């Protein structure tokens, strides 16, 4: 797939499945084994955003397996540009029953899970390109921003 997938990303995909051939255009890459991957490659100024996204998805997967795409690889290339590879989930509209199942999983599994690191993340998180204000909370009746 010359020209459409940077060599660095191809190397990372080969670490996931060395037997496959890869095709497609970012962000959706298809393997010859039938797997599909969501692949992002950014600029060095987006590194925090990529790390926050990866760690957020890892936390969701730990709390509610299968609910979010599994992160397969993330980091930086030799020039400091971030990359991110996860399962590709083809998500369309939900039927009423599927929406109810999703709502139940979100309200029970995610809120029942207790991270060993406490509430929040130790890396910045983003809403789109907007960096969210960092802060933590103590548990109990007097929850305050730390």
Structural overview:
This is protein-ribulosamine 3-kinase. It holds the Pfam family Fructosamin_kin. It comes from Leucocoprinus birnbaumii. One of its GO terms (molecular function) is protein-ribulosamine 3-kinase activity. The chain is α+β, with helices and mostly antiparallel strands and 146 residues long. Helix content is 30%, strand content 21%. It contains 3 helices and 7 strands, in the order H-E-E-E-H-E-E-H-E-E. The chain has helices spanning 7-16, 47-63, 96-112; strands at 22-25, 28-31, 36-41, 71-76, 82-87, 126-127, 130-131. The strands form 2 sheets. A 5-stranded antiparallel β-sheet has the order 1-2-3-5-4, sandwiched between helices. Strand 6 and strand 7 (130-131) form a beta hairpin. The longest helix has 17 residues, at 47-63. The radius of gyration is 18 Å and the shape is globular. The N and C termini lie far apart (49 Å).
In short:
One of its GO terms (molecular function) is protein-ribulosamine 3-kinase activity. The chain has 146 residues and is an alpha+beta fold.
